[in-house]
Amino acid sequence: MQTILFNDNLISVRAQRGIARYFGKIVEGAGRLLGPAASVCSPESWAYGQARHLPSLRFKGSWRFGLQDKIAALAAAALHPAVIFHAYYGDVNTRTAHVYPVYDMLHEWSAPANHPFIAQKRRCLQRAAALLPISEHSAKDLRHFYPDLDPTRIHPIPLGVDSSFFVDSPPPALEARPYFLYVGHRTPYKNFYALLEAFGRSQLAREFDLKVLSPLQGFSSEEQACMQHYAITQQVQLLLSPPDTVLRQHYAGAFAFVYPSRYEGFGLPILEAFASRTLVCTSNLSSMPELGGTAALYFDPQSVESIAACLLQAVALTPLERQQRIEQGVERARFYSWERCILRTLAVLRHLAEPGASQ
After folding, report:
1. How confident is the model over 28-48, as pLDDT tens digits?
2. Residue 305 near residue 196, CB atoms below 8 Å
3. d(CA 343, CA 98)
4. pLDDT tens digits, residue range 130-160?
5. Which of 3-12, 61-70, 114-123, 185-194 has the highest mean pLDDT?
6. Looking at residue 90, what is its pLDDT?
């Protein structure tokens, strides 16, 4: 089989944690299943297996995004790969077949139509030999914003959840009070502030804490003011960028995981919580119902009252109702395996690498 080149053009592994996890899984699978036919141009120490590693450079700042694509173009000129699989919407100038994952349409929904990133993304989508939306909802949004794309080149392939989340993890030591758990960034569309306000209005802080596992930044002045207004400062605890072992422990120990995002291309934390045998409360918009099915409890993320009511509903469940939803969640998480994602992705790449494949 001809060479398949994997281009690690992520801006930042820390800032793009979910995408980095996905790309790392695909690279690991390629090294294991494609062996020397796979080459990876990356500055990171992924699990390469038998794949060829072409080291590049990781600099701070978004400008290294373009630099990585120039390095990948040089690698392509030397290797003459049949296919290039990009971690993100890069601009490697070759006539090779290009494949791009499609994570979401967040910019299309929220940014001006003339935003430079949208223009670059459109070029990538239009020239792609295959597009791999990470959920059926992302595929639907892709067709909505880009109706001119050839539908035969769109292959929805959902992500997976690490098997380690299914392993019983001891909860954090000496937890005096049950807690709701929030995991992720706290940018506006993630809607954390609405959850914070809902937690305050619900008066559940009398019996519950809210634990926040989030990367990079402490509480903003607005978040601090909200906690002070509802007198819940001591009941809201922040842990910055915890390792996966600590993340798994907090999922396993939570009374419920709350995911209030207004928009997601997938929503991997929902599956991580399900696998950890944790009750999930989440938004009724975007891809969240696709993952949550009948196992999750839902709320309108635009309504603080709806979020608060959902938290109270979780508390009011009978032990039997709670256990039934937890068991349903585990089964849903088992359906979304990384191995399934890897095999389906590599099948698309292998097909394109065959002589005479349409590009």
Report:
1. 999 999 999 999 999 998 999
2. no
3. 18
4. 999 999 999 999 999 999 999 999 999 999 9
5. 185-194
6. 82
Provide mean pLDDT across the span 288-297.
98
**CA-wise closest residue to 262 among 302, 308, 211, 321:** 302
SS3 track for the chain: CCCEEEECCCCCCCCCHHHHHHHHHHHHHHHHHCHHHEEEEECCCCCCCCCEEEECCCCCCCCHHHHHHHHHHHHHHHHCCCEEEECCCCCCCCCCEEEEEECCCHHHHHCCCCCHHHHHHHHHHHHCCEEEECCHHHHHHHHHHCCCCCHHHECCCCCCECHHHHCCCCCCCCCCCCEEEEECCCCHHHCHHHHHHHHHHHCHHHCCEEEEEECCCCCCHHHHHHHHHCCCHHHEEEEECCCHHHHHHHHHHCCEEEECCCCCCCCHHHHHHHHCCCEEEEECCCCHHHHHCCCCEEECCCCHHHHHHHHHHHHHCCHHHHHHHHHHHHHHHHHCEHHHHHHHHHHHHHHHHCCCCCC
Tokens linked to 204: 């559940």
pLDDT at 358 over 60: no
Domains by residue range for the chain, with CATH: 4-159+338-353 (3.40.50.2000), 163-335 (3.40.50.2000)
Over 60: is that where the pLDDT of 63 sits?
no
Task: Please tell me the pTM assigned to this model.
Answer: 0.91
- CA dist 139 and 158 (Å) reads 10
Tell me the two tokens of residue 357. Answer: 């494949």
